[in-house]
Specification:
With 136 residues, the protein is α+β, with helices and mostly antiparallel strands. The chain has four helices and five strands; from the N terminus they run H-E-E-H-E-H-E-E-H. Strand 1 and strand 2 (41-45) form a beta hairpin. The protein binds tetrahydrodeoxyuridine (THU). Tetrahydrodeoxyuridine (THU) binds next to strand 1, helix 2 and strand 3.
Length: 136
């Protein structure tokens, strides 16, 4: 479990990553900050495509970037999302991103979001995707 100050720091990084969002179609900007087991933080943002389906969420951008850097063990991810030009509001990971998290992380992996009141809400992957599919 991350301390409250660590959760806030990771959320600040997600807010920074959100500035890099490429979302001309939805205009919904998302940033993610992934805390790896070695203490490094890998950032991601959503990247959209005019063909729509090739678009990628911020969480998966961060996880895929980390894996490409040789990292496969993760402690937590913070997610900041909301309409472009507005302060980040509530944004919980989509089902596809939850499944990708389950590929690399256990049920105690921490997912840090903002709730409807704008406060930090810390959830576990076990809460977000119980009884998930695993091939291996
Ligand atoms: N999106 C994310 O990046 N993460 C989420 O958890 C939910 C949705 C992106 C995908 C798309 O670019 C935009 O938000 C609107 O759905």
């Amino acid at each position: 479990m991350l301390a409250g100050t660590e959760e806030m720091k990771l959320m600040e990084e997600a807010v920074k990553a959100r500035q890099r969002s490429y979302c001309p179609y939805s205009k919904f900007a998302v940033g993610a900050a992934l805390l790896c087991e070695d203490g490094t933080i890998v950032l991601g943002c959503n990247v959209e495509s005019g063909a729509y389906s090739p678009s990628n969420c911020a969480e998966r951008t961060a996880i895929f970037a980390a894996v490409a850097q040789g990292k496969r063990k993760f402690r937590a991810i913070a997610v900041a999302g909301g309409n472009q030009g507005e302060t980040a509001g509530p944004c919980y990971p989509c089902g596809v991103c939850r499944q990708v998290m389950a590929e690399f992380c256990g049920e105690d992996f921490q997912v840090i979001c903002k709730n409807e009141e704008g406060q930090i809400e810390s959830l576990t992957l076990g809460e977000l995707l119980p009884r998930n599919f695993k091939l291996l």
